[in-house]
Amino acid sequence: MRKPKIVILGAGYGGLMTATRLQKSLGVNEAEIVLVNKNDYHYETTWLHEASAGTLHHDRVRYDISNVIDKNKVAFVKGTVTDIKTDEKVVLLEDGQISYDYLVFALGGESETFGIQGLKEHAFTITNVNTARKLRDHIEYQFATYNEIGNSEPLTIVVGGAGFTGIEFLGELANRVPELCKEYDVDFHKVRIICVEAAPTALPGFDPELVNYAVSTLEKKGVEFRIGTAIKGCNPDGIIVAKGEDEVEEIKAKTVVWAAGVRGSSVIEQSGIEAMRGRVKVNPDLRAPGHDNIFVIGDSSLVINEEINRPYPPTAQIAMQQGEVVAKNLTALIRNETNLQSFTPDIKGTVCSLGHDDAIGVVFGKKLVGKKASFMKKMVDNRALFMIGGTSTVLKKGKFNIL
Ligand code: FAD
Ligand code: NAD
């Protein structure tokens, strides 16, 4: 009899967690498992702000997928997914196609520019290893050429959005800039780092005391915050911002980083599976409504927090927990069991780094700042490596510069 075929799309936190759990729970004769990913490496999306600022080399944030999958049980296909034909149970790749019986959609998120003019063309994002390398190199180039050009303008870097991504990137950047100034003989006072945030506060919704700590720490390192100010446009010379109805201003900047929005994968929309901004409001067992053989997890899924009737923010923490549940549910389906597990996020906390030696966070309901929070952040980072790749991956890639 033909074995049922499980195809997992994406080797990020959700997809790789599903694959590594399935290779433990299913026997070789029970199912054929195929993992598809654009690159033959996995990257820690949660470390990309470091690679983008140049405080951590991009090779430190990635590892080979072949190191963590059992090749006897999981076949890896390097390919870019372009569409899913759900009626025919086929995934289309840029070069080829793969049929499936069960599908796990875990292609992660994409940057969302909300149609703001010029952002797609002129702003950098913090999305994957390529965007990180480009941004790091661009920033370095600005420093390398600053004196040569004989510039009267300051060397300005704008960060759009003071959400967790924006703040974590600013933490790294604020530490990197003095090093770059020294390396390229640029006067520190000629450098401006401006963070533009539309909401009335940085890190909207987070503990105000911790937000104040983060903002004042970054301000002491030279970051200027423009709070309650929205980016309205971007061009090769900088950005247009608006405060209220009438106050419109142009900020000149050779580097604009857009860290102000994420959405689900555009492949979901292409496939016709019902979604909002690329995110599928999944059933409790993580299947897409109307598609009994398709699970959607990670940043392309939407799970409602019933307590506040709002979606949970998309995080690696949730993507990994979903991967574990999907592996259990697929194992049950393959074994013709009908009881599938419902997914309930188990949020252990949130820690936001402010560079390598400082952070803020709430962990198991307890507030942390400074070195304690930074230690906790590194433990969280190492835990993710361990959960997917075990001890050997932690030893190769882990963060041990504890303090
Ligand atoms: P991802 O881990 O992003 O993986 C998606 C995978 O799919 C990638 O390997 C990608 O290459 C691949 N892929 C995408 N499109 C295609 C395609 N068309 N074809 C083939 N392959 C494709 N969350 C936390 O919980 N804690 C944190 O501290 C934290 N820090 C963050 C810091 C930063 C700078 C950022 C940007 C995010 C952070 N997050 C954090 C959020 C977290 O990274 C995401 O929620 C998480 O990565 C989502 O996991 P995922 O499996 O859905 O997607
Ligand atoms: P986000 O959506 O959480 O934050 C975006 C920020 O940009 C918001 O504060 C928003 O008010 C602001 N904004 C939106 N439009 C704007 C505009 N036109 N001009 C200026 N500001 C504007 O996005 P994110 O920070 O990229 O986070 C994405 C997800 O990843 C979230 O779920 C977050 O929790 C998670 N994440 C977690 C961590 C962590 O736990 N340490 C780190 C990074 C990201």
SSE diagram, text form:
Layout (H helix, E strand, L loop, with lengths): L4 E5 L3 H13 L6 E6 L3 E3 L4 H6 L8 E3 L9 E5 L2 E5 L4 E4 L2 E4 L2 E4 L4 E2 L7 H4 L6 H21 L5 E6 L3 H21 L6 E7 L10 H13 L2 E5 L2 E6 L2 E6 L3 E6 L2 E4 L3 E2 L2 H6 L8 E2 L5 E2 L2 E6 L4 E2 L1 E2 L4 E2 L4 H19 L14 E5 L5 E5 L2 E4 H28 L6
Parallel strand pairs: 1-2, 1-9, 2-5, 9-21, 11-12, 11-17, 12-13, 19-22
Antiparallel strand pairs: 3-4, 6-7, 7-8, 10-18, 14-15, 15-16, 20-21, 23-24, 25-26, 26-27
Helix pairs in contact: 1-8, 1-9
The chain binds flavin-adenine dinucleotide (FAD) and nicotinamide-adenine-dinucleotide (NAD).
Flavin-adenine dinucleotide binds next to helix 1, strand 2, helix 2, helix 5 and helix 8.
Any idea what the CATH architecture of the largest domain is? 3-Layer(bba) Sandwich
Largest sheet: 6 strands, mixed
Structural class by secondary-structure content: alpha/beta
- Mean pLDDT score: 96
Distance between the termini: 57 Å
Short description:
The chain has 403 residues and is α/β, with parallel strands linked by helices.
Report what the structure shows:
The protein is α/β, with parallel strands linked by helices and 403 residues long. The chain has 3 domains: 5-109 and 264-347, FAD/NAD(P)-binding domain (3-Layer(bba) Sandwich), CATH 3.50.50.100; 119-260, FAD/NAD(P)-binding domain (3-Layer(bba) Sandwich), CATH 3.50.50.60; 348-403, no CATH class. The chain contains 9 helices and 27 strands. The strands form 9 sheets. A 6-stranded mixed beta sheet has the order 5-2-1-9-21-20, with helices on one face. Strands 13-12-11-17 form a 4-stranded parallel beta sheet. The protein has a 3-stranded antiparallel beta sheet with strand order 6-7-8. Strand 20 and strand 21 (291-296) form a beta hairpin. The radius of gyration is 22 Å and the shape is globular. It starts with a strand and ends in a 6-residue tail after the last helix. The model has no long low-confidence stretch (mean pLDDT 96). It binds flavin-adenine dinucleotide (FAD) and nicotinamide-adenine-dinucleotide. The site of nicotinamide-adenine-dinucleotide has 25 residues, from helix 5, strand 12, strand 14 and strand 25. Nicotinamide-adenine-dinucleotide binds at residues 160-166, 168, 196-199, 204, 230-231, 259-262, 313-315, 350-352.
